[in-house]
Specification:
globular, about 230 residues, mainly alpha
Amino acid sequence: MTGRLRRDGLLAAALAGAYGAFALTFRGPRERFWQRMTATGASLGTLALVAEPELRGTRIGRRDVALGLASAAGLYGIFRLGDRLARRLLAQGGDEIESIYELRSLRSRGEIAGRLAAVIAPAEELFWRGLVQRRLAGRLGTWRGAAAAAAAYGGAHVVTGNLTLVGAAATAGAYWSALAAAGMPMGALVVSHVAWDIWIFLVAPPGAGTTASPPGTPAAAQPASATTARMSSP
């Protein structure tokens, strides 16, 4: 089993590339975060479509929309609880959560929503569930492969230095990996990821805003937290 896993050079190279791209995305200059995140999504999504031809047939029908929205609502509920726990149990939990939401100030909300919906969220599903999880499941079995893919997704965020973000990514990754392992189609997973990203980041962030600047405040005029500075340093 281990030998066969090692022989999947494409999977190993894809994961190495993803980890490197996430490092560049989160550690580069803060003001260009969304441009880098979009480029990373486009690159990983394209790789998934090239490596796994069946993903090119992904379609989104009414059932996919219904399943995606329902599952996004379930994950949002989990994160509302997680937000409260992180703020109470982690010494830097509140600051780390706010540092994530500070990224909303870098571009207009309409532009961020467009980037999330058109590139970033679909690409993450295509890559992490469509390529990484499928290949791991083929070698480790359905559920072990799902667990390994979720761990890989969470691990890609360690470079941020934001423990709360790592935990959030691991939780979301485990949720979508479990849905994929249970048979949810790719179209529904994409809808779920898009809806959840936009809702939790732009529409109704749980517990966010305790230190946020007024709407419309230019990014340059807003204070950056120490965590954000670590996430996006020159």
